[in-house]
Design a protein that fits this description.
The complex is a heterodimer.
Chain A lengths: L4 E6 L8 H10 L9 E4 L12 E4 L8 H5 L5 E3 L5 E3 L9 H5 L6 E3 L4 E3 L5 H5 L5 H5 L5 E5 L7 E2 L16 E3 L12
Chain B lengths: L4 H26 L5 H23 L19 H25 L4 H20 L13 H24 L6 H28 L1 H11 L2 H23 L6 H25 L9
Helix pairs in contact in B: 1-2, 1-4, 1-5, 1-9, 2-3, 3-4, 4-5, 5-6, 5-9, 6-7, 6-8, 8-9
Classes of the chains: A alpha+beta, B mainly alpha.
Protein name (chain B): DMSO reductase anchor subunit (DmsC)
GO molecular function (chain B): dimethyl sulfoxide reductase activity
Keywords (chain B): Membrane, Transmembrane, Transmembrane helix
Chain lengths: 186, 274
Amino acid sequence: MAKKIGFLVNSDRCIGCHACELACKNEYQQEPEIRWRKVYPLKEDSFGGFAREFASLACNHCEDPACLKACPVIAYTKREDGIVMHSKERCIGCKNCMLACPYKVPEFNQKTKKVEKCHMCAARQDRGEKPACVVGCPMEAITIINVNDTIAGAERSLPGFPNAAITNPTTRFIKPVVGRQVRRDA
Amino acid sequence: MMGEWALVLFTVLSQMAAGAFVSLWVLDTVKGNMKEATGTFVSQGVVLAMGLGLLASLGHLGHPLEAYRASAHFGTSWLSREVVLFGLFFFLSVVYYWQWRTGGARHLVGISGSIVALMAVPTSGMVYVLAAIPAWNNFGPVLFFLLTAVTLGPLYAAVLLTIKQYSLGKSLFQFVIAALFCSFMSFALYLSLLISAGDVTALTGWNTMLSITFWLRLFIGWIAPLGILGYVLAQQQWHISRYMILAFALVLIGELLGRELFYGSAVALTMFGL
């Protein structure tokens, strides 16, 4: 089976430091209001106990991308390896992809009057480098995986994430373990 | 969703033009006694409304001068299909107007334009049938866009025909009353379905109900024109012309308010409740 890459987001490791967001912004010199990657706080009682947990998400590079279907100018394409690319040259700024994406990924750049989004650092990956967010995370909470592989503990969704059946995102999650107690015996 | 004025104007004007085109073609085909000057005037009005609608639609784009490329994804994008069909409808409207003006054969253009208009309006609605916005992911957008066309279109044609002293029977207004009543009832049903659905769908319903725009739309776009048209048609000696422009203006304002509400009240799926 051909390699299909996706993000593995480990919420058990994520501490919500936003370093991934900054690494992405720094790499692509984004406008202040644009964030291709966002760190979301999870609902505190989602995992049994009460805890502050986070999920860092960018484009989910869906198997069945709603943005690609909705775009009237074919600005979106899906590569062999699964990365959903957006062409700024083709985009006319109609924002139809922004309406269609269930994950609110495409963002409108007021300066260029075009939409933009994460492309999983495709050029870096083609050079054999890791994406900026993966490199920038101090907790190693984001990794690139082959979604066809079986990853222990990886799930397709987290509580509060829109229904994965809509577009079949390639992002996989590792849930946080809440209520873990460290006991020091005398 | 502020700043959607371009889409509000485009959708309402294009649906009005589509409805008016079909009304003109039906009247011409069924009654067959229309003077060429009258038909020319009405078809000119259709071209004007559709032209203004297309012009307004450019206001939504980041790069309006590249709008011509929006037909490229006809195979999967409803927006591309909408662009192609309304572009074709505009072209056929211009040809129809020209045929009226020059006295050329217009039956084929009339029927072709009507078919394209009847395809373009639901296609426009399908652009908004999106899983990401549960309140739109149903029959709503297509039905409401069609209802705008069948209420506003005939009234627009009727205003233009009355200006040219064309005598209209009661049937057109009875049709508009029935369409307005359907529009009101179906919206009430839609709203109750939204509110009972839960989550972001219910939020859309409450956003609608609690908006002043909804109550203005209710009184201006449904109750007032239904009252006026009902009162006039109930008279033994009816003189619709003096009330025609008022009824049209009320329905037009109601539809514009309703469309603003459509775009402004919709709540998309949230990411982790945010």
